[in-house]
């Protein structure tokens, strides 16, 4: 199968080179023009959180102005109703520090909106009130101080709960960070153990794969053939050097990209591109042989050739 594949590639080497170059260009174009995923496209609407959000949107008809970030405070009382003066005074005292905070751009209470909009900020039983707090900064920056702003709220005889965009995002991020940290504590030892087992298996397989080669070398020596240890060592060290070069390309790709997947694509593109150029070197003339000098193998040969020449002199 591999022999037929090799003959096919050699027969259509120009088409192979062109298609590989095209795919490499498309990969680089995708890496350079990729953008962040914005919005969820309605994902999660069937989940419990999505149904809850839809229920809130149906039951609470108040539509606040669009803001960059904010939170919602829910004040409640088991003895007072929202329409009671004592409830209004307690709520006003609770949110007064927020109105003086420079990081808050606006506070909307049931008592600061027209009478036609009050129903959207008061529960059906009349014992809970919504307060919309708007921040001047974006959500990512507001998460740094939202707990400080919540601490400024002094509900007094009322009970207060903070929810909404910024607190929920902060809770998600905090939970995600703790889960990732816990996963790293578990994954690092397991990964080290897997690497030990995998590389041990690779070394064992490599030694087993060397048995036919060693057998050929032994029989060649027994039959009187010439075997130069320096040439054999040079061949093995050359493959090792090429492997180290590929590793260096991978580290360089990881340094220039933001994610591991992008670094892997870039390193794989360079490696496959170099192999294509090595394949182009089979053509003993023309443009392909000129392109072949750009491969990693050709560069190593030039570097090693200069060092060997210097050492010989």
Structure explained in plain terms:
This protein has helices at 2-11, 13-33, 48-59, 85-100, 139-142, 146-152, 165-222, 229-256, 260-280, 287-292, 296-312; strands at residues 69-76, 104-108, 128-135, 159-163. The protein has 11 helices and 4 strands; from the N terminus they run αααβαββααβααααα. The protein has a 4-stranded antiparallel sheet. It is elongated, with a radius of gyration of 34 Å. Helices cover 64% and strands 8% of the residues. Among the domains are: 62-163, Alpha-Beta Plaits (2-Layer Sandwich); 228-313, no CATH class. The two termini are 47 Å apart. The protein is α+β, with helices and mostly antiparallel strands and 313 residues long. The longest helix is centred in the middle third of the chain and has 58 residues, at 165-222.
CATH architecture identity of the domain at 62-163: 2-Layer Sandwich
Stretches where pLDDT falls below 50 for ≥5 residues?
308-313
Order of helices and strands: HHHEHEEHHEHHHHH
Compute the number of strand runs: 4
The fold-level CATH name of the domain at 62-163 is Alpha-Beta Plaits
Provide the spatial order of strands within the biggest beta sheet: 2-3-1-4
Secondary-structure class = alpha+beta
Q: Treating each run of at least 4 consecutive H or I residues as one helix, how many helices? A: 11
| Strand fraction | 5-15%
**Whole-number mean pLDDT:** 75
> What global shape is seen?
elongated
Give the terminus-to-terminus CA distance.
47 Å
Query: Class of the domain at 62-163 in CATH?
Result: Alpha Beta
In which range does the helix fraction lie? 55-70%
Please compute the radius of gyration using only Cα atoms. 34 Å
Describe the sheet with the most strands.
Answer: 4 strands, antiparallel
